[in-house]
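Justification of resources, computational component.

The compute hours requested in this renewal are based largely on the per-chain cost of generating structure records like the one below. Each record pairs the submitted sequence with a full structure-token output. That output is archived, and it is also reused by downstream analysis tasks.
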Amino acid sequence: MIEFLKGLPNLMLYFIVWGVLAFWLKRNKHKLATFVIVLGILFFLVCSTNYVPKKLIASIENAYDPIDLQQLDLSKPYYIHVLGSGSASDERLPALMNISQETLTRLTEGIRVFLQLERAILVTSAASKKGLKSQAELSKEAAESLGVNEAHIRMLKTPTTTLEEALAFKAEFGADKNIILVTSALHMPRAVKIFADQGLSVIPAPTSYLYKEGPNSYNGIAFPTFKSMELMNTYHITLLKDWYYTVFKKE
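The structure output for this chain reads:
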């Protein structure tokens, strides 16, 4: 039931509620019918054209810049904690192809940082559902296939949330380690907050940016697209998760 409830608060639910309300008001010739219909159309245009969703996504992703390795003391030991973000269990495929695209992106950034440091440990984490091989194990195997020595990899195989990942790291390695935290740019502000609440100071290494600027990118208003709706929904869910953690201190 909890997982079902977690999946409810998305934009589609709001549009369904709006549609039912607008239909009822129009059918009953309520004086608010026109206002509700126009308001819903405007909200749809805001959500489905790319300018607002991209700017809102950027407002979160810009909280931390990509890690600047030149600012690190390369003689110190670092634990590079790559947070999990999903995996599959297709026995036909190697580990590299069984971890999700998001996990792969995070792992790639973790390995990039790892290769630039003299004294580093790569930490993979997250469990998998139904007792199958954990994301931590799959990420470890994927890292090895990309050239990382097994001796420099540690696993946290039981966490299912970011909070559990922070707790597992603290229990396994202590709170006095130099931690480089690797996760998506959109997830990073909440992840930093969660680790800080557990007494863990981290160096953010955000990756997997959804919003990117450049001479070839157009960030103005365009025609409605499903991609823009997905971005707006992603922003909305991110806010809800941050609010939920802030209020209840759990995920």
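The CA atoms of residues 122 and 153 lie 5 Å apart. Strands lie at 78-82, 120-125, 153-156, 179-184, 202-207.
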